[in-house]
Amino acid sequence: MIHRKAALRSIYDSIRRMHQRNRTVASSYGSGLSLAETTILVELLARPDRTASELCAITGLNAVQMSRAVKRLGAAKLLSAKGAPDDSRRKLLALTPAGKRRAGEVVEWGMRTFGAAYARLAERERALFGGYLEQFCDGLGPSSAARVHGDAPLMREIRRLTRAFGFVGDSAFGMRLTPLEWHILCAAAEPGEETFIQDLAERYSLSQATMAKTVQRMEARGLLIRVASSGDARRRPLGLSRAGARELEKLEDHVLDTFDRALRPLAARQVEEFARLWEKYRGADIGARQIVLGPLLSLQRAASEEERTEVRAFLVRERAAQGLLESLPPELASRDSHVFVLRRSNRILAVLECVPDESGDLRVSSLVAAPRLNPGDLDRFLRRALLEALRTTDAASARIESTQTSPSARRLLSGLAGSSAPWVVRQARLSL
Predict the structure, then answer these.
(1) 384-425, pLDDT tens digit by residue?
(2) Which of 31, 83, 221, 244 gives 20 to 30 Å between its CA and that of 304?
(3) Would you list the DSSP string of 336-403?
(4) pLDDT score at 284
């Protein structure tokens, strides 16, 4: 048994990690749009012809935030406005055909992400977690959210939480930190981890320039400092200042108090059960991890047998089309290999599969990309997938044969390895 306060802390940690992993910190599920913008799209998909003030009341955005989001969506041709039949001065907002497609993609991405989370729960656990989650939302205060055709189970409650926590309005739990600043402070506070701007930029799918500006603002506010690196004296990782530690502690105390009030009707045993179910719902940080590389483009690990079966079908099809069937390896998306997949929405675009060899390094048994894949997207996938594979296995290098590699990836590998095939790519080159 764990104490109530520890259970509340566990719920907070699960929400933080899931929010980080699902890439809703700087954009919404890798869509290239903000969470406020996709929230507006989904609400209008559920019920069109609403005014900006009506959307403010539903989403929790203030008038200025709503005006900016509507302006950006209009400029992107995702939103249109027309006068109301009874009063032409009242502007009714609706989605354009492009806006409907974009909203549908966001719903589909949510289904994939939160549908997988729901599937981790047993049948009895689903009913329990759903009941606790609804009580949690109600306890946090009045908030509403649309339910859309094609939604994942409990998606309406997840949307209610993002609004109650202030994420839609770019605030972390109503405090003085944005969600991105909150996550940066949490990353800097991780024991035993060195935090660099480049790593943060990749983690949250931002350019290094944008991340650097955010970090500079936080340094100017006295929240972050530079500390000595344990591995390279030339690099200066980020650390928490005393002021940053106090700000993070203040936020976390506020969150735990808020959660405690919201769950006051529940007994300690029920709060503990809710915490356990949250942890199961969020999934393992390693096995279920996905990394956004661009708009609707993500790197994922194939963990389930269903995912690996889908990968095998892709590998056989693309290997046959690219003349790579003769060198088909015995381990094709096997349980003993590490499989990284590049997806756009639900479509597989590339696969990297690797297995540890006798020396402890990695042997890449498949690096297969669809010919239509943009070279820039392939380069981002290749670098990040190799880096994740090496970090996961603690290997120093990965060896790749040309017979296992799509033609489109061979030039990129020569640049990464600094040599011709067979390529040996070391982690240090991927971190540059």
Answers:
(1) 888 878 876 768 888 898 888 999 898 888 887 777 778 888
(2) 31
(3) TSEEEEEEETTEEEEEEEEEE-TTSSEEEEEEEE-TTS-HHHHHHHHHHHHHHHHHHHT-SEEEE-GG
(4) 46
* Chain Cα centroid distance, residue 144: 24
Taking the whole predicted model, whether its pTM rises above 0.70 is answered as no
pLDDT digits (tens, 9 = 90+) for 322-355: 998 887 887 788 777 889 999 887 789 999 998 8
Which segments in the chain show pLDDT lower than 50?
Answer: 1, 25-26, 284-288, 431-432
CA-based nearest residue to 201, from 184, 217, 219, 189? 184
Q: Which residue's entry shows tokens 């109301």?
A: 84
Strand partners, 423: 400
Identify the structural domains of the chain with CATH numbers, from first to last: 290-430 (3.40.630.30)
Q: With b meaning 16 or more CB within 10 Å and e meaning fewer, what string describes 11-31?
A: bbbbbbbbbbbbbbbbbbbbb
CA 99, 100, 101, 107 dihedral sign is positive
- Residue 173, phi then psi, degrees to nearest 5: 60, 30
Amino acid residing at 250? K
Phi, psi of 177 (to 5 degrees): -105, 145
Element (H, E) at 95: strand 87-95
